[in-house]
Write a structure and sequence with these properties.
BCAT-like_N; Aminotrans_IV; alpha+beta; 9-stranded mixed β-sheet; 8 helices; L-valine-2-oxoglutarate transaminase activity; 2 domains; single chain; binds pyridoxal-5'-phosphate; D-amino Acid Aminotransferase, Chain A, domain 2; D-amino Acid Aminotransferase, Chain A, domain 1; EC 2.6.1.42; pyridoxal phosphate
Length: 366
């Protein structure tokens, strides 16, 4: 990894004039919800064509001024990441695989014609923010400080070309356990809409993908489901992923299958970590294609015993029921399956420092 000095950057720390009081913070941390409460600080780093990354600042979280012609507002040149800081069993603070987020951020940047950020700078930005807001990490089981690094095109220019000015920003939001009690199985709707087409931006973590998924997700909710599952754009046959989570299928012979990364699926870090953990357990995991018809048939015959979705926000979530234009089917008992539970507990135990980190996934924050 390039060092910060290579990028010629030092951080300026701006004092917060009026940080949140301890009582108010405690009230927020007692019931943080998801994505509605924010910590006191933020990181902002500027990029200008010819100059590169400059003016790295950690200071009070506050609104940003944008010219109304800023190209992000018109052509959606925006990418983001999502990761969590956890309180470990021994009271220390840890990030889970932030280098993987840094690398994926740069792959997204490349696809959206945005400048790459040195990985060390990405990770240092997150570490500094977590250090500044270390009192904002909720301690309840399953709770964490959710970190949202993102980059926007800020140049005031209405022509269509890559912008010549960007801002990289990191904000933090205390997050409760995604599910209040345990992990209930979710019900999902097979969408007629598609999320990503071959050659498109499906493998990039960009806001535009999410804008396009809101109507399909709304349709799923309106029909009484929790989530939407997208099929491939070309044949409308192969299972890809949910709006923001990857999928795994578990068969009665103990093997697993997850859709292969063909460029239309977001390469989840949770997906990747579970691939490693499952193989370590001696399980056979295939990355391949799986059709909606086969899924239905296997669920009905009992060959398929579990399905789960995975991602940073909810970690591992069992899928209990699937509905679409061609009817409805249940998976296994409709509740969380054995393997789903086992893989989830192992991953959570590593993230929480309750199980040895033999893969170098944990990055402690001093
Ligand atoms: C972020 C995301 C995921 C999950 O990725 P993780 O790195 O595991 O959090 C899955 N699908 C989409 C579309 C995503 O944006």
């Amino acid at each position: 990894m390039a060092t910060l000095a290579d990028a010629g950057l030092t951080f300026t720390s701006l004092p917060h004039p009026a940080p949140t009081g301890a009582d108010q913070r405690a009230a927020i941390l007692a019931n943080p919800g998801f994505g509605t409460n924010f910590s006191d600080h933020m990181v902002v780093i500027e990029w200008t064509d010819g100059q590169g990354w400059h003016d790295a600042v950690i200071g009070p979280r506050q609104p940003i001024a944008l010219d109304p012609a800023a190209s992000v507002l018109h052509y959606a040149q925006e990418i983001f990441e999502g990761l969590k800081a956890y309180k470990q069993a021994d009271g220390s603070i840890a990030l889970f695989r932030p280098e993987a987020n840094a690398a994926r951020f740069n792959r997204s940047a490349e696809r959206l014609a945005m400048p790459e950020l040195p990985e060390a700078l990405f990770v240092e930005s997150i570490e500094r923010l977590v250090q500044a807001d270390r009192d904002w990490i909720p301690e309840a089981e399953g709770a964490s400080l959710y970190l949202r690094p993102f980059m926007i095109a800020t140049e005031a220019f209405l022509g269509v070309r890559p912008a010549k000015q960007y801002k990289f920003i990191v904000i933090a939001s205390p997050a409760g356990n995604y599910f209040k009690s345990g992990a209930p199985a979710v019900s999902i709707w097979v969408s007629d809409y598609t999320r990503a087409a071959p050659g498109g931006t499906g493998a990039a973590k960009c806001g535009g993908n999410y804008a396009a998924s809101l109507v399909p997700q709304g349709e799923a909710i309106a029909r009484g489901h929790d989530q939407v599952v997208f099929l491939d754009a070309a044949e409308h046959k192969w299972i890809e992923e949910l709006g923001g989570m990857n999928l795994y299928f578990v068969f009665d012979d103990g093997t697993l299958l997850t859709p292969e990364l063909t460029g239309t699926i977001l390469p989840g870090i949770t997906r990747d970590s579970l691939l490693t953990l499952a193989r370590e357990e001696g399980l056979t995991v295939t990355e391949g294609r799986y059709s909606i018809d086969q899924w239905r048939e296997d669920a009905q015959s009992g060959r398929l015993v579990e399905t789960f979705a995975c991602g940073t926000a909810a970690v591992v979530t069992p899928v209990g029921k699937v509905s679409g234009r061609d009817g409805e089917f249940n998976i296994g008992s409709g509740g969380p399956g054995q393997l789903t539970q086992k893989l989830k507990s192992r991953l959570v135990a590593i993230q929480r420092g309750q199980e040895a980190d033999t893969h170098g996934w944990i990055r402690k924050i001093g």
